[in-house]
UniProtKB/TrEMBL annotation:
Protein name: Dynamin-2
Any one GO MF annotation of this record: GTP binding
EC supergroup of this enzyme: hydrolase
Organism: Nestor notabilis (Kea)
Domain of life: Eukaryota
Membrane topology recorded in Swiss-Prot or TrEMBL: Peripheral membrane protein
Positions of the Dynamin-type G domain: 1-217
């Protein structure tokens, strides 16, 4: 069934083409008014018929020289701009329509076509009104392309007269009359097979074919790139069968297995899907084990003054009433009391390391469940079950860690091979202990010297190297240009209040003997970006023997606390126990640094991996109904459908292109001709009257309407065109659709702004 549709009347099908004609007139009057006004808004009409070819016609108005009615003063320039907007497109064929009873050399249509198509590859001359030429004249030489030649030549057509239109002459009858005219006219009968509306349709269709054939290679390449870009994602959806009863079971098994693999890869490490922005998973846990946990232990190292005071209190309290007598022996009970107190302090860093590992495991689970986002309920349940199990293991791990500390407290093994013993402790001082460390490098890193650069316009950053004997700084981390080396003897560290304008955290080194630390400076202020970094440097300095400067505030009521160390005998005992505690705590620290990561690894990490591999699936089955778990999100369903449709469309498009490439016959472009006459022709008054006439609409198996002015432009659709909407008034360029029409879009019937019919010359 033949029918028509207007863009402004969506959903309404016109089967009576008299109604189509009336709708064009009504819409024209509605937009432009009834007094010969103009509008750049096009009327879009699409005609479906089995008897026509898929072409899009754009009917452009003739150039009006003198404004009439409601037309603006610059009507000529406006219409010219609209025409140029359409015919400048490279995929547009230009039908330069000129009446046979006017001077072809003065044709506005040919002149405009020459401006945008100097090679003549897109311009086809159409000669109308051949039946209205004066007696004794004909257009034979023009139609034979001998006089005023064009590269693609001319085609003659005979349209219905105004009388035929008013009398509603049938299109089929008009085509027969046109055919009869060419066969019977002595000047045209020898080329009748190359004249008429049917031949014009054939020529236009061939040009469309040529254009498609020329654009196929680039178009095929574009389609193949699109196909490759989505093929990996579509691979997941290819085997999707919504009606398969086992689909959800298979999907659940696959999702759980994928989650298990991803979790293990993130913990154990893998070459694929590497995060290049931050540490995560196993790498971060490794950092907790070997950097953060030892740092927390170092932070727990005791304050020297407080430790000595505690030792002196312990010795005095153990002697009890006997402290009035000379202290001949160093009490081992004081050593045990101090050591046990120091071991108990290790519980804090150990429990904190468990918390850090637990948090990182939960973060890893959250990252792995992102791949389960296709099934929101499955994602939530998996995260809930695994996170709950991790917290359960956290409690058991903490219990085991506390048990390890209690085991160390329960028995002080003074026969340990690394323990120095009482005899060696009496001969050993803190200085000797320090020298045993040698010149070992304790820490390296960037620090800002805060107070030295003030006079030079700002602080400056250097690369610092801390050893057991000195603190050196260099220009950069290559350590080639040393700026200074500061011995650590008699140095202490203290906090500096953060300034209001600075974002850095500051600490200072100073000499206990009131000497300058560096050149003329009593203090060396060093700045870090974070408080955590400051604490880390303080802990490292502590290991090198640079202690914090803390004044004693814990005196007893009689003010006798500091007097304990005045007794030389007591001082020697304090120093002995101090060395014993230091030796034994180094053994304990080494043991704890080794055991805690192993405990966490066994009771938490490995246990969680085994749970995911062996028990997660059972917990999911028992937690909720499988159908509820495996409900897809609406976004996922939509995306899968879109991707599969696009993939299928691309495959079909490539197959069609393959068929076209092998079966389509294309014709070469005609050779160039001498069309210099277009530039030399003198301009004369245009043949088209300036009065508008109402558009007329032929029935579907039609030919283009006779031109009373510049040509209608026929776009040769690109690779993505089908039957795009047809503008029926001058207007901006319409959007060309990307898909073909189901019924095969026919050539659209051109129309023009309302104009009164011209008088027919007799």
């Amino acid at each position: 069934t033949e029918y028509a549709e207007f863009l402004h009347c969506k959903g309404r099908k016109f089967t009576d083409f008299d109604e189509v004609r009336q709708e064009i007139e009504v819409e024209t009057d509605r937009v432009t008014g009834v007094n010969k006004g103009i509008s750049s808004v096009p009327i879009n009409l699409r005609i479906y018929s089995p008897h026509v070819l898929s072409l899009t016609l754009i009917d452009l108005p003739g150039i009006t020289k003198v404004p009439v009615g409601d037309q603006p003063p610059d009507i000529e320039q406006q219409i010219r701009d609209m025409i140029m907007q359409f015919i400048s497109r490279e995929n547009c064929l230009i039908l330069a329509v000129t009446p046979a009873n006017t001077d072809l050399a003065n044709s506005d249509a040919l002149k405009l076509a020459k401006e945008v198509d100097p090679q003549g590859l897109r311009t086809i001359g159409v000669i109308t009104k051949l039946d209205l030429m004066d007696d004794g004249t004909d257009a034979r030489e023009i139609l034979e392309n001998k006089l005023l030649p064009l590269r693609r030549g001319y085609i003659g057509v005979v349209n219905r007269s105004q009388k035929d239109i008013d009398g509603k002459k049938d299109i089929k009858a008009a085509l027969l009359a046109e055919r009869k005219f060419f066969l019977s006219h002595p000047a045209y009968r020898h080329m009748a097979d190359r004249m008429g509306t049917p031949y014009l349709q054939k020529v236009l269709n061939q040009q469309l074919t040529n254009h498609i054939r020329d654009t196929l290679p680039a178009f095929r390449s574009k389609l193949q790139n699109q196909l490759l870009s989505i093929e990996h994602e579509v691979e997941v959806y290819k085997n999707f069968r919504p009606e398969d009863p086992t689909r959800k079971t298979k999907a659940l098994l696959q999702m759980v297995q994928q989650f298990s693999v991803d979790f293990e890869k993130r913990i154990e490490g893998s070459g694929d899907q590497v995060d290049t922005l931050e540490l995560s998973g196993g790498a971060k846990i490794n950092r907790i084990f070997h950097e953060r946990f030892p740092f927390e232990l170092v932070k727990m190292e005791f304050n020297e003054k407080e430790l000595r005071r505690e030792i002196s209190y312990a010795i005095k309290n153990i002697h009890g009433i006997r402290q009035v007598l000379p202290c001949l022996f160093t009490p081992d009970m004081a050593f045990e009391a101090i050591v046990k107190k120091q071991i108990v302090k290790l519980k804090g860093p150990c429990l904190k390391s468990v918390d850090l590992v637990m948090q990182e495991l939960i973060n890893t689970v959250k990252k792995c469940t992102k791949k389960l986002a296709t099934y929101p309920r499955l994602c939530e349940e998996t995260e809930r079950i695994v996170a709950g199990y991790i917290r359960e293991r956290e409690e058991k791990t903490k219990d085991q860690v506390l048990l390890l500390i209690d085991i160390q407290v329960s028995y002080i093994n003074t026969n340990h091979e690394d323990f120095i013993g009482f005899a060696n402790a009496q001969q050993r001082s803190s200085q000797v202990n320090k020298s045993a460390v040698g010149n070992q490098v304790i820490r390296k890193g960037w620090l800002t010297i805060n107070n030295i650069g003030i006079m030079k316009g700002g602080s400056k950053e250097y690369w610092f190297v801390l050893t057991a004997e000195s603190l050196s700084w260099y220009k950069d981390d290559e350590e080639k240009e040393k700026k200074y080396m500061l011995p650590l003897d008699n140095l202490k560290v203290r906090d500096v209040e953060k300034s209001f304008m600075s974002s850095k955290h500051i600490f200072a080194l100073f000499n206990t003997e009131q000497r300058n630390v560096y050149k003329d400076y009593r203090f060396l202020e060093l700045a870090c970006d974070s408080q955590e970094e400051v604490d880390s440097w303080k802990a490292s300095l502590l290991r090198a023997g640079v202690y914090p400067d803390k004044s004693s505030t814990e005196n007893d009521e009689n003010g006798q606390a500091d007097n304990f160390s005045m007794d030389p005998q007591l001082e020697r005992q304090v120093e002995t126990i101090r060395n014993l505690v230091d030796s034994y705590m180094s053994i304990i620290n080494k043991c704890i640094r080794d055991l805690i990561p192993k405990t966490i690894m066994h009771l938490m990490i490995n246990n969680v991996k085994e749970f995911i591999n062996a028990e997660l699936l059972a917990h999911l089955y028992s937690s909720e109904d499988q159908n509820t778990l495996m409900e897809e999100s609406a976004e996922q369903v939509q995306r899968r459908d879109e991707m599969l449709r696009m993939y299928q469309a691309l495959k079909e498009a490539l197959a069609i292109i393959g068929d076209i490439s092998t079966s389509t016959v294309s014709t070469p472009a005609p050779p160039p001709v001498d069309d210099s006459w277009l530039q030399q022709a003198r301009r004369s008054p245009p043949p088209s009257p300036s009065i508008q006439r109402r558009p007329t609409l032929n029935n579907p198996p039609t030919r283009p309407l006779s031109g009373r002015g510049p040509a209608p432009a026929i776009p040769s659709p690109g690779p993505q065109s089908g039957a795009p909407p047809v503008p029926f008034r001058p207007g901006p360029l319409p959007q060309f659709p990307s898909g073909g029409e189901a019924h095969g879009g026919p050539p659209q019937v051109p129309s023009r702004p309302t104009r009164a019919p011209p008088s027919v010359p007799r």
